[in-house]
Structures are given as structure tokens and as C-alpha cells.
Amino acid sequence: MTSEAPPRNLDFIREIVEDDLRSGKHNTVVTRFPPEPNGYLHIGHAKSICLNFGIASEYGGRCHLRFDDTNPTKEESEYAEAIKRDVTWLGFSWDHLFHASDYFEQLYQWGEELIRDGKAYVDSSTAEEIRDMRGTLTEPGKESACRSRSADENLDLFRRMRAGEFSDGTHVLRAKIDMQSPNINMRDPVLYRIRHEDHHRTGDKWDIYPMYDYAHPLSDAIEQITHSLCTLEFEDHRPLYDWLVETVRVPARPRQIEFARLNLNYTVMSKRKLLRLVEERYVAGWDDPRMPTIAGLRRRGFTPAAIRNFAERVGVAKRENVIDVGLLEFCVREDLNKVAPRVMGVLRPLRVVIENYPEGQSEELETPNNPEDASAGSRKVPFSRVLYIERDDFMEEPPKKFFRLAPGREVRLRSAYFITCSSVVKDAAGNVVEIRATYDPATRGGDAPDGRRPKATLHWVSAEHAVDCEVRLYDRLFNAENPEEGGDFLEHLNPDSLEIVPDGKLEPSVRSAAPFSHYQFERLGYFLVDPESKPGQPIFNRTVTLKDSWAKKLAGGGGLARASV
RNA sequence: UCCGGGGUCGUCCAAUGGUAGGACGCGGGUCUUUGGAGCCCGUCAUCGUGGUUCGAAUCCACGCCCCGGAGCCA
């Protein structure tokens, strides 16, 4: 009778959340995504965003977007705006935008409270002295002489720090915990530092700013966060997190849970390295289609659904992981295959003259917009005597498994006619510059009344109707699986990560395609209309190639099948 | 060396003392007006050594290996 719930493989975080809900520890779940506005979001952040917003929505809770803006020297509004844009684009929304800087007053008051309770003190040592007294990984630290200051003296000093009476670096507020602790984070961590610097939101109101370790747990508590999810490197900070939410009289006690961050092969993910790629112009900007940033992926042609699906497939666990970028590519193909309209485009044009097709004549042929989706309808493409096909689709001396066009061979032109290559025209150097062919008028639409079936179907574009376009073919930015390994990561930059095709030929239906629209160029791959396109002069970014078993054969099978086209 | 984590197919993720399973990849087949997609089949793994148990990836012991940690960064 008891209807068993279908077995689900929950990740360890969702298990904890469900336990807490079941046990009544919480009756709602509140998570948060807390970026520092000092750089652009990347695919690793997407995992965290999907996790935090995903859990909130699955369990009927909330997820806050909170800017962890506690360091005015590194943070900018431009980054904050980009982050909001990216989170929204990914498909998530927050009902209220939070900032750690909104809590500065409360955080300051709690600082005074800690002082009064004898749990914090002002240290007037220099940064070097503090570092020296902290000890090492294997030796305990030493207590600062300032540790014994009276609460009154500490309060006075802390207030004067706030009032701006002291210059940068002269004093800090430290928690009084345990200089002997084997966990360095518990050796009287710094809570506040003096920074005479304007903050992008609070202006010149503050001369002291809280440290992450202090601001983060208390901000979580203020927002009644139930589960504070972060990456593994904060595991050592958890005792301090707990110390703060237990020691300070906060309205709630959030729990920090750590998971392994996402790593992707053939790219770099650290903000410092991404910033360097941008600043030193190895890429065109944060949204360069080769960047692993959300903005870059968007401009490359990845879809929010593909990224969300990717985030789900990579899972959540605590062991270090490196995800194969092939999985990301699989996810975008999977999505685009369902939704991208098909279109025909030739990247390396080879002229074909249909000798028995009347000069000056043309006709319109019907072709489906998406064979995967009948509701996408169909469109007409013009056909005439002179066409372009892909250079790679013709070989004068075809090897065994090459099924495409060759002298004397008949192939189908997609949704058009069967053609047979009758001869080739070469230039002085012996390069094939034109194919002469005949067509079979009885095969209009692509079927032969006698039932014969060519082994290949080629895409094509009518020369006189073609739209000229630029196509940007992107490949991975690095050619090493782990660019960080061995020497400078820049040494592994892939010199062929961008190839510009200046004279692609497209069917006329895409002449004024809107920026950011997705297409499949049949047999080639998925392409996105770049925002730099001008009316009538589209620019396309290749998102990803279609799987191509012939190209793979050429590449020797296995490994990194790069499209030859 | 101290503290904290982690070791399951090539790569990710599951199995919560009871037949090691899924996804991607790879290989093959089928289908095909995209050499795409789809469909079918197959390939491949529990860090090591002991122990507990009818039964261990799972529990215990001892090792080994990997990652993180000494910002007034987050």
C-alpha cells in the first residue's frame, strides 16, 4: 500500500537539505549565490548558480543573489552589472538584490559587540608582524602584545578606525580565538582592515572594511540562509564560520557546506588568468567566444538550457574533477538539434555549373526548417545554373570510403536534384576551380522516380542568390588538456583557435538574421549571428561542429576530432 | 612536517552491508534527402594489504597517492 517514492540519486547536498526539511530543522530552504564583483562569471560559476537556484526552486525556497562587495580596491559596478545580466540570461531570478555592503553598519555594531564580550581586539602590529606571529603550517603562532588591551581601549580604537583617524595598515580588528590552533584560520583572524578607498556603492562613507571571513557568515545569518554552499577551499574556514555564527548574537545559524568546483579541460578558469587573457589582448574581451565566461559562451552560441543541462550532468560531489569539454559540446548539440533552424551555407565555395540547366533560369525549392520538428515548417531556397558546393565535398581521386562528389559520380543536392559530375576545370596550377555537371530533372525535390539513391547528399547555395558573409570558426583556446601544467599557461595557447572565413556563401533566407539567433548550417555545425553583424552583412560564429565521422576518419580516429571544414 | 578534505570505467556521477549502474567518450550495427539526429548492441572501474561478516566499494586497522591551507584577497 505504501507507495514508495521512485528511487532518486540525490547529491550529498540535496540529501542534507532533505534531511533538514524532514527533521524539521528547517521548514524552508534559503540559499545564496555570492559573487564578488571583480570579474566576469564563468562556467564554473554556472555550476554554483544552478546548484543554489536549483535547490531553492526544487524545495520551494529562495535563493538570494548577494554581491560580496567587501573589498573596494578590486570591485566595480561594471562587473556587478555583467553578473546580473549573466545570471538572468541563465534563466534565474532573484526577488531582491542583496549586498554585503548593505550590512556594513550591522557588521560594525557586531564588531563592537565582540569587543565588549572580550572576543575581539584591535591589533596595531604591522602586517609583517602579524604574519610572523601567525606561525606556520607546522608551528603554532604567538600572541600579539595588543591581545590584552582592555575592552574600553579596543572600543575607542575601533571607533577611531571607523572615524578615519588612522592611515591604512596601522590597525586591524582581530577575533580573539586561539593562536595555538592547528587551523591557521583560527589564529586570531583579521576581521576589519582600514582602507581609505571609495566603495562603488557606499562611496566615502567607510574607512574600514570587513574581511570575507567576517562578513560572509554574518551576512548569511542576516539573510536567514539555511545552507551556505561554497567550494572546497573554504573547508578550512568552516570552524571560523561556525565560531562567528555561534559567538555573535545573530538571528540564525546557517550551515556551510563545501563541494568541489568545476574544472574543464582545454581552458583556464581562474579569474586572474582570465583577466590576463583579456588585458593582454590574447582574446577580444570578456565575451570573446573562446572564453569560458558566461558572456563568452553566450556569444559563441551556447544556450542557457544547454549550460543548465551541463551543470546537472556534471553532478555535485567533493572529489576533485576535470570535466571533458566534450560534454559541454554534447549538451549544446543536444539542445540546438531540437531548436536551431536549418539553413544551407558553404564555407569554402567550389563553383558548379549545371550544363543542362537553362541559363538565366531559376526556381524555388521547398526544404524543411528542421527535420526534428515538423512544426518548424519549411522555406524556399533558390536554385539556378551556377551553384557553390563545399570544396571538401569533391575529390578528383576519391579514396575508398569517400561517398561524395567525384568525376562521373552522382550525388543528391539537398532538397534539389541529383547531379553528376561530368568534368572539372582547372587553373594553370592544376587546382580544380570549377565542376561541370548535369542534373536529372526527374529528381526534383531529391527523389528519383526509379528509386535510385545516391550515397551522399550535399548542401549547396545558388551563386547568384548567395549572401556573402564572414564566418568565424572557433576552436579550443588552448591545445593542452591542462594549460596550467608546466610553465606559463600562455605557452599552450592554440594558435588556430580562431579562423576567419571571409567569403562564406549563404542561402538568402539568413540575409537579415537577428543577432544572437542560432542556426544549423546543414552538415557543418551550429552557428550564431554575432552582434557585430550589420544588416545584410551577417557575421556568424561557429558554436560547435556537427559530429562528422568522415572528418574523424581523416583525423585518424579517436581523440580530438577537429572538423576539417 | 601540522590541520582539513578526497581516492569507483578513459572522464564525470551513482550504488548508504546484498547482482558495481547511468551519462559522455570509444567500437560496432540499424536507419537516413544532413557521413547529423534517432534506435540497438558492445567495451571499460572499486588505491594497496590485512581484518570483521554468510556476504564489503560500503565497516575496522595499517599503509600509499592526490588536493587545499601560513592575504590586512574572496
Describe the structure.
The chain is an alpha/beta fold and 565 residues long. It folds into 3 domains: 26-259, Rossmann fold, CATH 3.40.50.620; 263-340 and 550-564, Glutamyl-trna Synthetase, Domain 2 (Glutamyl-tRNA Synthetase, domain 2, Orthogonal Bundle), CATH 1.10.1160; 345-459, Ribosomal Protein L25, Chain P (Beta Barrel). It contains 13 helices and 25 strands. The protein has helices spanning 12-23, 43-58, 77-89, 104-116, 127-133, 151-162, 212-222, 238-247, 271-279, 294-300, 304-314, 325-339, 549-554, and strands spanning 30-33, 62-67, 97-99, 120-123, 172-175, 190-194, 208-210, 227-231, 255-259, 342-343, 345-346, 349-354, 362-368, 378-384, 386-390, 410-413, 418-426, 432-440, 457-458, 461-462, 467-474, 498-506, 518-521, 525-529, 539-545. The strands form 6 sheets. A 7-stranded mixed beta sheet has the order 10-23-24-25-21-22-11, with helices on one face. A hairpin with a 4-residue loop joins strand 16 (410-413) and strand 17 (418-426). The longest helix has 16 residues, at 43-58. It is elongated. The chain binds one RNA strand of 74 nucleotides through helix 5, strand 6, helix 7, helix 12 and strand 19.
